[in-house]
């Protein structure tokens, strides 16, 4: 695997653990080969990261598959705060990094008293080598839950420089890995989530690159993943200033990915020590990361995957086909649910009736540990 530079500071990474892992969100109807994956950290700024052998990790072909909408309260708060910092009634164009920005962009474009339109093309096509766009003052650039997936230092640096040529209003939203880690929730690990910076690190990185953070706010609600949001503009007079690449003082050494992997593996080793076969209900990146760990620790365990999505049913993860949850059978001695709703209750009842010795667990029990 070629050496890859940290997208934040441009330095190389040190590898701590290497393995093979199937893609966790590429629901192809044909079998595909696993990718090589490396867990490590940046040698300079210490940001934990995952390196993969494929550019696909940059969410390339998922644009058309992302069915993504934030909660209404989330959209309303974010859109209102963005509009409050606009210099209306100037015309504004919204630039979206990916399909994850669609719902927020649509809400912004509907605000009365504003002159907001949406650029039809996304900023990234994920296989490109440059950003082909020129921003104007008062434009909005949305980077919603995407920074942690970017795999190119040069591409992100070019975007940063282009944003500073004009006085745009930038918006970054990212999972609050620090809060999850301190809470003991390790479910944020994902082979397509490449970087794990803390909010403090991102704040300092933005300022180090010549941006002024006009507002930083959080979405922390019980039962919902926590997110941190940054609204930022160019520091007056900064232009395309030469940015420092020495971010060691912004040390983001909050956790070691390998330590998290060890904890998860030990939990799975204990939970599945007497299991011969298991069924997983609800196929997403968390459940497939669990399946990868199971195959890594107990390759002899038979795994069956069930889901209700037409996009996923009939697709393959590794050499396993995803089966329709309507046709679920209950022969397995362990049943793992990635969701908790009325269907969980109904299926659990059927499992107990059919197999009194079967064990049922929630996927959250695999990833949740004692708070720090």
How does this structure look, described?
The longest helix is centred in the C-terminal third of the chain and has 15 residues, at about 255-270. About 35% of the residues are buried. The chain has a 6-stranded mixed sheet with strand order 5-4-6-7-9-8, with helices on both faces. The chain has helices at about 70-85, 100-110, 155-165, 175-185, 200-210, 255-270, 285-295, 340-355, 365; strands at about 15-20, 35-40, 50, 90-95, 115-120, 140-145, 170-175, 210-220, 225-235, 275-280, 300-305, 315, 320-325, 335, 360. Residues about 60-65 have low confidence and may be disordered. The protein starts with 12 loop residues before the first strand and ends in a 5-residue tail after the last helix. It is of the alpha/beta class and about 375 residues long. It contains 9 helices and 15 strands. It is globular and about 70 Å long. Helix content is about 25%, strand content about 25%.
Short overview:
It contains nine helices and 15 strands.
Strand content: 15-25%
Which structural class matches the secondary elements? Answer: alpha/beta
SSE string, helix = H, strand = E? EEEHEHEEHEHHEEHEHEEEEHEH
Major sheet summary line:
6 strands, mixed
The average pLDDT is 86
| Beta strand count | 15
Major β-sheet strand ordering: 5-4-6-7-9-8
> Poorly predicted ranges (pLDDT <50, ≥5 residues)?
59-63
- The protein's oligomeric status is single chain
Report the radius of gyration as a whole number of Å. 22 Å
Distance between the termini: 34 Å
Helix coverage percent = 25-40%
Number of helices, where a helix is a run of at least 4 consecutive DSSP H or I residues: 9
Q: Give the overall shape.
A: globular
